[in-house]
Amino acid sequence: MKKKTNSGEETIKSIRRNSAYNSSRTLVLIFCVVLGLSMLATAYWLSQNLPQNAQIAVLFIAVLMGVLSGVNLFHFLHAHYDQSDALIQVAKFQERSLKHRNNALSLVEKIREEVDEENQQEQKVRAFVQDETMESIEKPSEEENQ
Fold first, then answer.
1. Separation of first and last alpha carbons in the chain
2. What is the pTM (predicted TM-score) of this model?
3. Are 17 and 87 in contact (CB under 8 A)?
């Protein structure tokens, strides 16, 4: 008989396999910082021919846009990885509940077997007692016949 696979374990393995979970958060942070700095560098390169007041305004806007886009992307990707983490937690709870369910089922089976054994022993005792009472009832009648 083939052992039934645990769907919780399979879910955990697939989530961890499909998401680069441990290194992804560090890579997201590095990518967001690089995104913000690249926006600032591009704005600086494009604004070199502008007058100084306009260049400062463009750089200020680039800093704001770089920071906002980096922070938004960072939070979005962290939410994605938190969702993966939540799926992992759900899979772990599912695995635990299946394990507890299997433990409970095995306990019920053991109790059922013990109850069946007790019933069989009681039936044997009853049968033995009935046999003895029948013998005791039959013995006096045999003595009376003699």
1. 65
2. 0.45
3. no
